[in-house]
Amino acid sequence: MTWLVTGGAGYIGAHVVRALLDARLEAVVLDDLSSGHERFVPGGVPFVRASILDAVAVDRAVVDHGVTGVIHVAGFKYAGVSVQRPLHTYEQNVTGMITLLEAMQRRGVDRCVFSSSAAVYGAVDVDLVTEGTPKAPASPYGESKLIGEWLLADQEIAAGLRHTSLRYFNVVGSGDPAVYDTSPHNLFPLVFEALIEGRAPRINGIDYPTPDGTCVRDYIHVADLALAHVAAARRLDAGQPLERAYNLGSGEGVSVRQIMDAMAAETGLAFDPEIGPRRPGDPPRIVASGDLAARDLDWRMRHSLAEMVRSAWEARRASVL
């Protein structure tokens, strides 16, 4: 069985590729390197540099490499930026999904694991997000991910596609020192860059109704996330049933203050965070249950917060040595 990993040169996709190899599954990567890095692709793994929007290239990748399933990670992932660039977001995430599904249908590829997002829920006001929590995306990014899930469901009816979507919030850590998060928008890279440059990281709001006054969020280790993608792929290969969607959540969450404390402890760089005002629209707490994924995908939090920070910091430091 050969799995095409779209976006496989990115932070998350590259970890998925490594997890596939560890499971003795064949992988091929398609990535346009708009945010990924070719050096993240393991040696020996076929790499196709192309956009998910390039129908000819996607079709050729499927045929040339004997692809039997797709793990679709590629996409424009910046929720905040998507508000300013909605058309670009929809082109990458919706038109890209359509292009991919068309190639799959033409070539008889009938299984897909979609790397979706908990952004489909929007700014929820519940203690624990479940798969049944109402979907109310608060950004074009979240909307585009939800549309992607709809397209998969429609293809299930129309063409017999077997699929599942994995929803998650914040992905951190590193499972390989050669791969780290290079996003200019995510919390861990932002904190690391501030520390490297000798600046104090920033906390936006310390007066939320949470135990320490800072926002509480779900943070999961990227290697755990990758294992869940592979578990879903293996169930599809085996013809075993899957839910249409799973939350990959911690069930508890951690606060921004807890993250800052862990950053200081694990980096050895003591600092007092700069305190700023709340960001508009930031809910006090967003945490998801991972019970369904634990039942079907062996999902669990295998890494502590300290391990998440330590692995991410070691990978980031290795990148500049």
SSE arrangement:
Blueprint: E1 2-6, H1 11-22, E2 26-31, E3 47-49, H2 55-64, E4 69-72, H3 79-84, H4 86-107, E5 111-115, H5 140-159, E6 162-167, E7 170-172, H6 187-196, E8 202-204, E9 216-217, E10 219-221, H7 222-237, E11 245-247, E12 254-255, H8 256-267, E13 274-276, E14 285-286, H9 291-297, H10 305-318
Helix pairs in contact: 1-7, 2-4, 4-5, 8-10
Task: Walk me through this protein's architecture.
Residues 3-249 form the NAD-dependent epimerase/dehydratase domain. Belongs to the NAD(P)-dependent epimerase/dehydratase family. Helix 1 links the parallel strand 1 and strand 2 (26-31). Helix content is 40%, strand content 16%. Helix 2 (55-64) packs parallel to helix 4. It has 10 helices and 14 strands. It is globular. It folds into 2 domains: 2-171 and 218-247, 3-Layer(aba) Sandwich (Rossmann fold); 172-217 and 250-318, Alpha-Beta Complex (UDP-galactose 4-epimerase, domain 1), CATH 3.90.25. 47% of the residues are buried. With 321 residues, the chain is of the alpha/beta class. It has a 7-stranded parallel beta sheet with strand order 3-2-1-4-5-6-11, sandwiched between helices. Strands 12-9-14 form a 3-stranded mixed beta sheet. The longest helix has 22 residues, at 86-107. The protein starts with a strand and ends with a helix.
Quick tags:
321 residues, Rossmann fold, 2 domains, seven-stranded parallel β-sheet, three-stranded mixed β-sheet, 10 helices, isomerase, carbohydrate metabolism, EC 5.1.3.2, UDP-glucose 4-epimerase activity, UDP_G4E
